[in-house]
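TICKET: design request
STATUS: open
ATTACHED STRUCTURE:
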């Protein structure tokens, strides 16, 4: 999704939150649903080494989180803590907010205007950060498989990474699964009006689907998680209007269900385990500084929702 479109949708979503937040007098934070204290964890967001004492309590396969557009590692701190409390060492790819500006150089290329951008070259800043994170996890857990969990556009970024950037040995033997959370996994269908022909990724998503369609890597388990709780409707509440405006260019129609940003039609990969949840697209809104946490929003990282997709991640070892 182009930055200007995403910024507008974020602004509308924030306005919707301010108008509909169930507890407007509270500080911005995610609700805590679990009543059990988290297990000891390390500062995985800061990419520090995992201590031997922490390793003993984090006995399951590690998880690497691919952030959403404009997302950074710190945005996933609470999600990481929840995964740690369930025994998974968890790492968010260590992107910085201004790393995303590196993608703007593609806007002056002929491939951008022709809609034929390719991931390699366009998303190198993201891929480099992923490789650094994967290398760290492999060093700290040499005998364990790795789960890839990707939020929003991180879903098709992860598919591109696995398909043409990652070490083939990791793809064949190390990566246990790829889970997409509210990801736009398909470009708009062709031949269904103006918006259906507007590929907001300028060819990136079309490239990924042409080269790595569906559950492409047979040695990995694919899980697609999509929110179905927000119906896009014009003339209703602001949240429904934002959903309609977002769904329309993504799937060719504004009506239907989704997570408020991504419609269900494009959230589920063919061949993947399909997990439908009552969840919003995100629990935070990126800014140039710290992200704004959305009070009362249930999203893919909220404990009760997280549990619904986490159970599908296989725990076999190498």
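STATUS: resolved
RESOLUTION: sequence designed for all positions
ATTACHED SEQUENCE:
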């Amino acid at each position: 999704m182009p930055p200007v479109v995403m910024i507008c949708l974020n602004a509308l979503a924030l306005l919707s939150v301010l108008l509909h937040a169930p507890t407007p007098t509270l500080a911005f934070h995610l609700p805590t649903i679990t009543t059990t204290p988290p297990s000891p964890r390390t500062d995985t967001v800061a990419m520090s080494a995992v201590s031997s004492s922490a390793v003993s309590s984090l006995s399951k396969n590690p998880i690497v989180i691919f952030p959403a557009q404009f997302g950074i590692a710190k945005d996933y701190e609470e999600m990481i803590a929840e995964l740690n409390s369930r025994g998974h060492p968890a790492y968010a790819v260590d992107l910085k907010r201004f790393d995303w500006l590196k993608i703007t150089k593609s806007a002056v290329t002929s491939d951008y205007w022709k809609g034929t951008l390719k991931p390699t070259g366009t998303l190198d800043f993201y891929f480099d950060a992923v490789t650094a994170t994967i290398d760290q996890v492999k060093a700290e857990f040499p005998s364990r498989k790795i789960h890839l969990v990707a939020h929003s556009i991180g879903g098709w970024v992860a598919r591109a990474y696995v398909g043409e950037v990652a070490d083939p040995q990791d793809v064949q033997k190390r990566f246990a699964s790829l889970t997409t959370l509210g990801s736009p996994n398909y470009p708009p269908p062709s031949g269904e009006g103006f918006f259906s022909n507007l590929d907001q990724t300028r060819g990136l998503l079309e490239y990924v689907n042409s080269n790595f369609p569906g559950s492409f890597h047979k040695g990995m388990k694919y899980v697609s998680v999509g929110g179905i709780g927000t119906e896009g409707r014009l003339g209703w509440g602001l949240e429904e209007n934002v959903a309609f405006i977002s769904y329309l260019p993504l799937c060719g129609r504004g009506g239907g269900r989704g997570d408020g940003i991504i419609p269900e039609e494009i959230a589920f990969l063919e061949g993947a385990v399909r997990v439908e949840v009552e969840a919003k697209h995100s629990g935070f809104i990126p800014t140039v500084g710290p992200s704004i946490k959305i009070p009362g929003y249930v999203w893919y990282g909220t404990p009760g929702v997280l549990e619904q997709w986490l159970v599908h991640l296989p725990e076999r070892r190498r």
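CLOSING REMARK: Residues 114 and 202 are 8 Å apart (CA to CA). The radius of gyration is 19 Å.
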